[in-house]
Design brief:
single chain, mainly alpha, 4-stranded parallel β-sheet, 6 strands, 6% strand
Length: 416
């Protein structure tokens, strides 16, 4: 009897031991458990002056403020490599910021508006008028500045140069509109701006130096104040300084932009920004294809010392903290992405290379190029007509879209 009891107890003990070993076995490592193969940059500021208290970037379509609620599409989660989309977002407000790659984004929106017969907010100007494609700052009598749309409809998209105005934009666009802007490193943007608007030639004329000196900005930057007007992103986003700029005023401005805009793209990570934007808008991969716009090949033959860089930052007391804040926000977004996101970005870059090759050379030989299906998108083709649209100049695109908008409005009046 004792021997049987011992055998039973032994079997029970062995059973418990096996269960313990099975349950407590080593966890299988998944992609989510492995640190992302990306070097997350350190803070771009040595102080906590403009750091966000909330390290979690709000999900664009779950954001709610007192006058802006969006409930469209999906959220991005690191545990879901391919989030499910409900419907395409057709209401997009893009604030076109000078010299930040905004012309390329604008072209994407121009094509989307044209292909989907959407209502764009366009300046009501004669095509012979100078800068007829620019809207500038909207006034209180803003309806006289824009091309009207049929009664009962709303404006869907905006992609022309304007100045952000919270109240007017909220009146013009539906409540579920997705607000997007783009920023660029303030030093690089400053250089691009001065070359594009031919301020460099003026500097060389005002501050002569030896021809072999590449530090062409140094002398002008030493002048107090800086003698050349350079409008920054803060101007486009509606910042109106009243006297000397102070930290409280800057913080309040940045906070308001953060509340108004669902996503702020970073030019240095343009393709990553576009792929993330595609997910938020539930767009197809073809919707975000592009060929680079307004590349300035004259921007060469210069150098910046470390002192020059610091002085350039010093004359941008609003634009530097603005960029720093949204740069950190952008990286908070990237850190939450599944590894599949970065694989998709790599695939997107390869597609862009194929599109550039076809549009610049291949379309002379065949009417279209095919791109195979992947885990991120269905098979699609790019035609010669698609290439032509990707190469639209801003003025040409606005002329085409304005003509369609006027015809649509005129026809609606005739029906009534």
């Amino acid at each position: 009897m004792k021997q049987r009891l011992f055998i039973v107890i032994s079997f029970v003990f062995l059973g418990i031991l096996c269960i313990h070993l099975i349950v407590g076995r080593k966890k299988i490592v998944t992609a989510n458990d492995v640190q992302r193969p990306i070097a997350i940059p350190a803070s771009r500021s040595n102080s906590n002056e403009f750091s966000t208290q909330n390290e979690t970037m709000k999900t664009a379509h779950s954001k709610t403020t007192t006058d802006h609620t969006t409930t469209q599409v999906q959220t991005t989660n690191t545990s879901e490599p391919n989030p499910i989309c409900i419907a395409k977002q057709n209401n997009i407000v893009f604030l076109k910021v000078h010299k930040c790659g905004s012309s390329t984004v604008a072209n994407i929106l121009q094509r989307y508006t044209y292909n989907n017969a959407l209502n764009a907010l366009l300046p009501d100007k004669d095509p012979t008028e100078q800068s007829y494609w620019v809207l500038n700052r909207l006034k209180e009598q803003y309806m006289s500045q824009i091309i009207p749309i049929p009664e009962g409809e709303s404006y869907n998209t905006m992609f022309v140069h304007s100045v952000h105005d919270h109240d007017i934009f909220k009146r013009l666009f539906p409540n579920n509109s997705y607000y997007v802007a783009i920023l660029r490193d303030p030093v690089e943007r400053f250089i691009s701006y001065t070359f594009y608007y031919q301020l460099v030639a003026k500097m060389k004329e005002d501050y002569p130096q030896s021809e072999d000196n590449p530090y062409i900005f140094s002398k002008a930057l030493l002048k107090k104040p800086f003698p050349y007007g350079v409008l920054g992103p803060s101007y486009d986003l509606g910042f109106l300084p009243r006297g000397k700029v102070n930290k409280t005023e800057v913080d309040r401005f940045i906070d308001n932009i953060d509340k108004d805009y669902d996503f702020v793209m970073i030019m240095e990570y343009f393709d990553e920004s576009l792929v993330y934007l595609r997910h938020q808008l539930c767009w197809d991969i073809k919707d975000i294809l592009y060929i680079k716009r307004n590349v300035n090949f004259e921007k060469r033959g210069y150098a910046l010392s470390q002192k020059d860089r610091q002085m350039i930052k010093a004359i941008q007391p609003v634009d530097v903290p603005l960029y720093d804040y949204f740069y950190k926000q952008f990286w908070n977004i990237l850190k939450r992405q599944h590894v599949s996101f970065f694989e998709e970005v790599y695939n997107f870059k390869k597609i862009l290379s194929g599109v550039a090759d076809y549009c610049n050379f291949g379309r002379k030989l065949k009417p279209e190029v095919l791109f195979a299906k992947t885990q991120w998108h269905d098979a699609f083709s790019v035609t010669s007509e698609d290439c032509s649209k990707m190469k639209w100049s801003e003025g040409h695109a606005i002329t085409i879209l304005a003509k369609k908008a006027r015809e649509k409005y005129k026809n609606s009046k005739m029906k009534n």
